[in-house]
């Protein structure tokens, strides 16, 4: 029976992956550096600080990593505060979970200061008992630590927690740690769809309006 749920944010709750795909190239374009727009794919699994360090080294910038982070943050911040929307069906599904009294947390490789205002604007911030983000914790989702911390906060065991993710590497991490992974379709991870379908317990094109009955038994 489901005793807790962990959600990734970008590409899983918020429809932001296209924004992040092009954030680095937009930042560099603002500096007069034209780059291949496919550059964003390289940073798909990186935290913002990791991306900043790579950009600084690859393009031999005089800016510090902190200045690059600030620049990229500026590119995406307004979108989070004003524009980004939800993935199909996720709002109703989160409501169904909270109405059952199931605790929820966010575990993200992103930045809490972007995630929280977006969720607040969309009416979902108070649905989550905690938001754990790599930029604040210093821990990457390539390790299970943040997921296990979320489990402890919810007072639930991994085997009773469902985790919603759009990235293959994260599905593999939580599966190995004993959680139940559900893969969420996102344009940014369509190339991994076959593997996601094989390794996750379910692959959802969009969220259902109700909790699957089997999870409540």
Automatic annotation (TrEMBL):
CDD domains: HAD_BPGM-like. One of its GO terms (molecular function) is phosphatase activity. Pfam families: Hydrolase. PANTHER family: 2-DEOXYGLUCOSE-6-PHOSPHATE PHOSPHATASE 2, PSEUDOURIDINE-5'-PHOSPHATASE. This is HAD family phosphatase.
């Amino acid at each position: 029976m489901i005793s807790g749920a962990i959600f990734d944010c970008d590409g899983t709750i918020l429809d932001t992956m296209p924004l992040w795909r092009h954030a680095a190239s937009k930042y560099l374009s603002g500096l007069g550096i034209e780059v291949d727009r496919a550059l964003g794919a390289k940073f798909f699994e990186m935290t913002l600080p990791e991306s900043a360090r790579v950009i600084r080294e690859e393009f031999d910038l005089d800016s510090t990593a902190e200045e690059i982070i600030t620049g990229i943050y500026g590119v995406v911040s307004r979108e989070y505060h004003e524009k980004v929307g939800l993935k199909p069906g996720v709002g109703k599904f989160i409501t169904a979970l909270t109405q059952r009294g199931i605790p929820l947390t966010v575990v993200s490789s992103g930045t809490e200061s972007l995630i929280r205002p977006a969720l607040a604007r969309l009416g979902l911030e108070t649905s989550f008992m905690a938001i754990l983000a790599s930029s604040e914790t210093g821990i990457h989702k390539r390790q299970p630590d943040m997921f296990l911390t979320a489990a402890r906060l919810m007072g639930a065991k991994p085997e009773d927690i469902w985790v919603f993710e759009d990235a293959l590497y994260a599905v593999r991490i939580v599966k190995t740690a004993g959680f139940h992974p559900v893969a969420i379709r996102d344009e940014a991870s369509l190339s991994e769809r076959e593997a996601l379908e094989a390794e996750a317990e379910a692959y959802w094109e969009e969220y259902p309006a109700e909790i699957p009955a089997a999870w409540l038994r």
